[in-house]
Amino acid sequence: MSRLTASTADTKGQIRQANEELILAAAERVFAGAGFSGATMAQISEESGLPKANLHYYFGNKEALYRAVLARILEDWLAPTHGITPEADPSQAIGAYIRSKMALSAARPHASKVWANELLHGATVVRQLLATELRATVRAKSAVIDQWIAEGKMAPVDSTHLFFTIWAATQTYADFDIQVSAVLGKPALTRNDHSRATTHVLALILRGCGLNPDPAP
Question: Which residue range forms the structural domain that includes residue 137?
Answer without folding.
Answer: 71-208
